[in-house]
Predict the structure.
Amino acid sequence: MDIRARLHNKEIIRLDGAMGTMLQAAGLKLGENPEVLNITEPDTVHKVHTAYFAAGSEVVYTNTFGANAHKLKRTGYTPEDVIQTAVRIAKIAAKPYNGLAALDIGPIGELLEPMGSLKFEEAYELFAQQVRAGAEAGADLIAIETMTDLYEAKAALLAAKENCNLPVFVTMTFEQDGRTFTGCSVPAMALTLQGLGADAIGINCSLGPKQIYSLAQTLVSWTTLPIIIKPNAGLPTVKDGQTAYDLSPAEFGRELAGFLDLGVSIMGGCCGSNPEFIRELCRNLDGKAPDLSKRVEKVPPAVCSNTEVVPIDQVRVIGERINPTGKKLFKQALLNGDMDYIVKQGIDQAEAGADILDVNVGLPSIDEAAMMARVVKELQGAVSLPLQIDSSSQAAAEAGLRYYNGKPILNSVNGEEAVLSRLLPLVKKYGCAVVGLTLDENGIPKKAEERLAIAAKIKARALEYGIPPEDVYIDCLTLTASAEQESAMETVRAVQMVKEQLGLKTVLGVSNISFGLPAREKLNQTFLSAAMAAGLDLPIINPNAAPMMDAVSSFLVLSNADKGSVKYIKRFAQEGKNVKNTPTAPAAGYDINFTILHGMREETRQLCRGILQETAPLDIVNKVLIPALDEVGKLYESGKIFLPQLIAAAEAAKSAFEVIRASLPSGDKSAEKGPIVIATVKGDIHDIGKNIVKVVLENYGYRIIDLGKDVPVETVVRAVEQHHAKLVGLSALMTTTLVSMEQTIQAIRKQGIDCKIWVGGAVLTPEYAQQIGADFYAKDAQQSVAIAKEILG
Amino acid sequence: MRIFPDVSLEGIHVDKEEMLRYLGFRGQELDESLRNSINRCADLAEQAALPRFVTAESAPVRLLENGVDLDGLFLAGEDIRLHLGQASAGVLMGVTLGVQMERLIQYHRRQSMADAVMIDAAATALIEQACNRIEDSLRKLYQKQGLDVTERFSCGYGDLPLETQPDIIRVLDAPRAIGLTCSSSLILIPQKSVTAVLGVVPPGSYRSVRGCQSCKNRNHCLYRKEGVFCGYQGQAAQ
């Protein structure tokens, strides 16, 4: 069977049914490793395959669902042992039927970072090992199935594509609400997996055919690939004291064959199905063909995270704030590795209404690729907006695209041949959208026509690499009006021409227009409006600047995108209220001690601004803030206030510190003590205690290098050395991760670093802290402050 | 064998008192803005929660010298041996609020750590409530058959080692059934999740093993240090 031709023509391909169900019927116990049977009972496995072929399957999945090194760890077998045997068994069974053996790859069984602790790279390696073993043993294709985490599916698909040349099927498992357990939606799956080069995608397990039907209806409008549906034999119930599924083989076959009407072409069964189900399916498929008229010819232009799809069907705002250019605090955050600050920039923009976030972390003194990977991972753990990976470094760009969980945008390529041939293969490989700047070896052309010509070239070169036009977004480039006034409207004209003549989406960094002129926002707003009217789809702006978002919100009404002006009305109705409620001056009678104690952040900030008029910054810190915090600390220790109040007070004080820090000249670190390195140790992902300690310590003016959670021993040692930290705080919440804490302490000591170490966490005791070599034990954040004062003053 | 007790986890609400207890609340004065924050955070947790559970019955129960064998699943320790001493079968349960709770907490902690801590406590209160509902429905299910179930017993209670966690996850097929996994350092992920074992017993034949002695936090509990009972059945405030 020529599988590639069958796939290309979207011909029907009949898969097998459940393996686990069959093995359980043959005596396998719940919780036993079914993969071991390939070696211990090859005949049993062979019989299952043969029964499916005899029932009409053309492709069977090998008995290797859990054959990864993690799941096999305790069986004494390697993935190679199991997989090579399993493929051989399936091939032998396939031969008389001229059938095919698909290497089955299921989830690893551990959740990936940032929610879990399994690294993307580790997941990739586990899958790559399976793929290599399967390909070597002669598998005909790769079938990645039952994925619930898009990130894991991506790791598996990349591993398949980079380690063999076989066709790759990928199916994920959805719940009735149309999402997987980790929140991935059907369109997000389709956009991401088609982009990454899967040969067929779809849905398996989870539900019966009836429940999957509406999910499949969604799927057909988001992909041009052949679609696989491999449902359970209905929904699970208990029948005569046994778990059973509620469909008969005849019902199953009839319902599943109904998917032909949607243009679905590849079908089989999952849990609860057996050869009878497949026989009925094949009988119902006989003489029929999928209705391909239901299939879309193009994937709708869109980008996505794992949970959120942003179709580029109206103006969508790309937030520009994750970028160090001209930002003192952001640069400092990059140097300190302060992920909380960077993620906060993303969250603030999301709150302000951004649809997509640009991510630029380029700074000469840092490893940009490593930083890009880290920031992308951190952002996607907290913010659901799709990202635009923005870098001129190829390594950083690739890191961003590789570690992104979804379909991102790459910013950017341009008309230079060298750039195109370097970056377009990456765009193709990772299936992202790409921004093309209308400049080339000769710089930025003056006339709109010339910029159009470059855009046309970028479109054509992209097509040669197999990148569809709907994934190419053209940036016609904004020039500064104060320097090149005549070109402002040329840019607008170019936007219009690219839209009309090339049919491409357009993107534009807007704020540059007003550089060097007063009242920049007014000019920005007018330019943005002009560009949107000319067809700009994706303005790159600061969403925190209300006038810009006002313009976008207004334009969405005028362009008939905001139906019934619903969002517009909501935005401005709310704004009216906010204005009324926001006090213009601090309420009379409050002093800063009161506002800190009551966790009133905004009031504290304003009061601090007032005090700063008369008092030296350092005096405020030493004579106002620290005494106020000490008072809060005492109230906490004596039980007068409890944890949320302690933290809220610390956060209020932090807003005062921000005012003070901003008032100091750049480079003046007199208000700063430390640094202190803190981390939740390797293996542990409970970071709440460490984060509380961080907030409280920061407000005593300590500079905190927060390494995050699940931090490898070497990372801690390196950070302590690099930042010359005199104090290190380690946290662990599990008895199982105290071992990592001890190892981390030992590694720091072994390095001979002159620093003190304090530890904390629910399962620790002062005695145990001493036993593992820590200098101090802190029972809570307040005690951590006492320790920091003792060591650092 | 999977079993399907008649229970819905929809619309579970945060028990505010319990939420406050997790935050170390001991009757301090709550001003209006703090009250509002508590309510807001409880609402956020309720909205983000996507509770799911899986339950399975396992038999036979074989008492061994050093623990219990539950149809091939070995549960080590004297405490579980006592707990299942009268049991004719074991029931395993896994419950989770879903991974979006983590994302919610990670999102809010960048804006307000105080909110994040309150959401975290609210989520803990929610998962406990989900467990209670499931436990009650299991009890009803078995009472209909003239039997009863013991209270739930989790890894880390008494001397039942955390190392059992991956085995329970595997037997329940929990990753596939409800998206519940266990990391290599034995942490349940999503974090707001619980697994437990209950015994199916003749009515009235079990004795409660709950309270501080069975709590994994008994040596570190802030309430206990002050000679107060936390009121919570199973795990004390950290």
Notes: The two ends of chain A are 76 Å apart (CA to CA). Residues 192 and 407 of chain A are 5 Å apart (CA to CA). Chain A touches chain B through 68 residues (CB under 8 Å).
